[in-house]
Amino acid sequence: MPPLSIIQTGSLRQLEVSVERLTGKTVNDLRQFSIEDYRLELETRHKRPLRFVSRFPFIGRGNVMRDRIINSAKIEKQLDAMLR
Amino acid sequence: MAEHPQTFAELFKFYHEYVKLLYSSVQVENELPTELLFELNATLDHVSRHWCYAETEKEVVEKAYSHLKRSCLDVFKLRVKKAVDQYNELTAIEISIIDNGEYERNLKSLIQKIRCAATEARRLEGLVKNAKDGNIQAFEAWHPVFDDCVRLEKDFYYHPKLNWAKKNGLWRKVKGFVLGVITGAICLAFLERPLSELLRWCFDRLIGFCQHHGG
């Protein structure tokens, strides 16, 4: 597959190296594996089924939580506070 | 390929070349944030509309692409949050004893670099939000941040000497506690008599004061 032209090649390579380091797999493997196969492999490695978690309001664009309503400005503030 | 995908082939190329990598970087923890899945579901929904509701390919690709971009930005933010959490966890340990303080100095400098670069990437994201294909520029600003976050995890959070520092830190605390108890006991042994005499003297003076003013 030719390189992606949306992202500059050098910058994309930096990301690829980071992802390879994080996952321990080559980017070619990651791209070619079906996400289902990869999930099964990870479940075997971790010896537990995949968990679904919520990272809202840190990410996600909805504004309704179970106990309160939060707007995107507040979400942005939380992120800025973490970066201070 | 154009500056942004305009056909399904280009959209899926972006997915396979870029989105799938970032998705894998989250999936590797065997935990998936539902918010990330919502973005991918929304992508699928837009794509399906081309066949089910006769929306044009260009239109659905544009909408689907915006959800894919959102999912990528979410992954970058999650990675930074994780790095900050890992840093906070590390600072609770006695890390100043690793490599004669070199580890702590490098860690602090790295987290500072991550914070500055992430702030800049977010600023760029805000600046180019409304520009056509602007988010892509912001993506490139996130790449070094992502790289540094991975470095923090691999080189610092999983540092081989960290267990030693944890044990050593615990031993130092225990040692401090035992020394405190011994010092206290010694002081008590030496000062028990003068202290009790002082207390008695204070008590007598107080009683005397009360009697004098009371009656």
In short:
The complex is a heterodimer of chains A (84) and B (215). By secondary structure, chain A is mainly alpha-helical.
Summary tags:
heterodimer, A: 84 residues, mainly alpha, 2 domains, 4 helices, B: 215 residues, 82% helix, 1% strand
Give an overview of the whole structure.
The complex is a heterodimer of chains A (84) and B (215). Chain A contains four helices and one strand; from the N terminus they run αααβα. Chain A has 84 residues and is mostly helical. Chain A has two domains: 9-46, no CATH class; 53-84, no CATH class. The radius of gyration of chain A is 18 Å and the shape is flat. The mean pLDDT of chain A is 80. Chain B has helices spanning 8-27, 34-52, 57-91, 102-127, 134-157, 162-214; one strand at 31-33. Chain B folds into two domains: 8-159, no CATH class; 161-215. With 215 residues, chain B is mostly helical. Chain B has six helices and one strand, in the order H-E-H-H-H-H-H. Chains A and B meet through helix 1, helix 2, helix 3, strand 1 and helix 4 of A and helix 1, strand 1, helix 2, helix 3 and helix 4 of B. Strand 1 (51-53) of chain A pairs parallel with strand 1 (31-33) of chain B.
- Helix percent band of chain A: 40-55%
Overall pLDDT of chain A: 80
Poorly predicted runs of chain B: none
Distance between the termini of chain A: 41 Å
SSE layout and pairings?
The complex is a heterodimer of chains A (84) and B (215).
Chain A: H1 9-23, H2 27-32, H3 35-46, E1 51-53, H4 72-83
Chain B: H1 8-27, E1 31-33, H2 34-52, H3 57-91, H4 102-127, H5 134-157, H6 162-214
Helix pairs in contact in B: 1-3, 2-3, 3-4, 3-5, 4-5
